[in-house]
Amino acid sequence: MSQFEDLISFIRKDINRCIKRLPIPDSPAYLYDPIKYALKGRGKRFRPILAHLVGRANKIDPDSLMNVSLAIELLHNFTLIHDDIMDKDTIRHGQKTIHNKWDISTAILAGDGIYTIAQLILNNLNNENRQVIKCFNEVTLDICEGQALDKEFEGSQDITEDLYLEMVKKKTSSLISASAMLPSIINKDSKEITELYSLFGEYLGKGFQIHDDLLEITSDVKTMGKSLGSDIYEGKQTLLVIKAKINYKKNWNNIISELDQSDLKNNIYKFVNDKGILKDIKLTAESYFNKSRMVLKKLKHINTDELFQFIELVEKRTY
Q1: Which of 243, 239, 250 has the alpha carbon at shortest distance from 275?
Q2: pTM of the predicted model, to two decimals?
Q3: Residue pLDDT, tens place only, 78-111
Q4: Which residue of 51, 75, 144, 210 could cross-link 179, Cys pair, CB 3.0 to 4.6 Å?
Q5: How far is Cα 243 from Cα 236, in angstroms, rounded to an integer?
Q6: Assigned CATH class of 3-315
């Protein structure tokens, strides 16, 4: 294991330790048992890890950095719980989704509770509290807008690549941008510097999501730790689906409309691989990761070595 991999493992363990030590009550069990269950899942913690790496580069106070990182991870979990309900997913972070283990009402309440805990954690910050919370809440609304667009797009035949990327910017990139921006806000950087962190996160987030769409087809449930194929079953408009429909509409509709859906994932993989769509999407994801690298090069006031390594980690992930 490389020195950087050791660092990532250390940060992830530290984040997990702090999540485990959150003072979550036992009663009422209807609320807090599902919250504890959700937070013990084996999440990748990419977003709080990114916040830590930006914080390390700027020598930010470790306590403030951990508070922001925890809030980011809790916000992420809140969105996942509600998304899983809407997308009818059954597995998340290697375990049953909350609505699958309990019920929808329990899951909604648990998500609300997790988001409230995130807000309370941010109240532990000092002078930078107001601007951090403003950014945090703006990002939350962006995520909600992104999820709304994602639901609106389901089953539509008119979604373009530009519309898809706008949805991804809100639903996925906004929180990754926040993970890079919030340490910059705490550091009282100039508006121009903070905007560079935001743009870095936007490009990284787009690459992350496009790569994630590929893993929906190329990976497996055990490796990913979440349900796969649900995006396709629910009519989600991923970049893969959009390109397939634009270029091979009749063939694509024939595959999707087959009565026997048991081998749908494999059939789609073979089709997009044979038609070169898979390669095309990989190149698109790569282009966004490279754009994030170009932005990092403009941050000349810090050592960006670890952030460049983080991009590579995200780009080459298999889960």
Answers
A1: 243
A2: 0.93
A3: 999 999 999 888 999 889 999 999 999 999 999 9
A4: 51
A5: 13
A6: mainly alpha
